[in-house]
Amino acid sequence: MDLTDLELIKKLNFGNLSEQELIDVFYKSRDKYRILVNLIQQPKFPQKFSLNIISKLFPTDLINVIKNKRTNPFIRKKAEIEFTMKYRKFPIGEKLSLIRVAPNSLLNYFIKENDKRVLKAILNNRNCSEGIILKFINTQTQKFDFYEELILTDWYKRPSVVQAITRDIEAPIKLILKLIPLLTKTQLKKLYEQDNTHEIVKRNIEYYLESKKSGSI
User: Fold this and answer.
1) d(Cα 159, Cα 144) in Å, to the nearest integer?
2) Does 47 fall in a domain?
């Protein structure tokens, strides 16, 4: 007896079909989008078929393919590339909704973004990591908007992020000032002695150390 589409999808997700069985499913259901979406995520499904399906997937399904650890790594990478190509054409609203749920590996592609709304969505994505934040800081692109959004999160308080910011000559003074209490005495001395450290920052370091010495903070 032929399976319904729902039964077939359940079998794909919870069964252990052989490569040939998966190929048979493909030929019988090549015009059924939901089945193709599930087929492409099967580790035994041949790459040559998956590559023809990727370009037909909607963005949310591409994200699901990328997130699924069972999916062939090569296919996941191809899905990432396909997503980034389609992403450029999306309206801002769709971009934001997709970035909010994008996996960490996909966020790597957006470290040159300069739209504050997109930056905010990346920074508040639960899949965002220190590695992504450090890439933003270390990139050579203009970072004013990035820092404007970063300061509104707790990311700037992470030790590795703090150190990266203090080394960045583009970091805004108001952010550097917020970092002073987070730095060790050695780090403060190093920041103070840097050639590019602004006089306002130096004065605040002096005030902080004096206040700490007197016990007022």
Assistant:
1) 21
2) yes
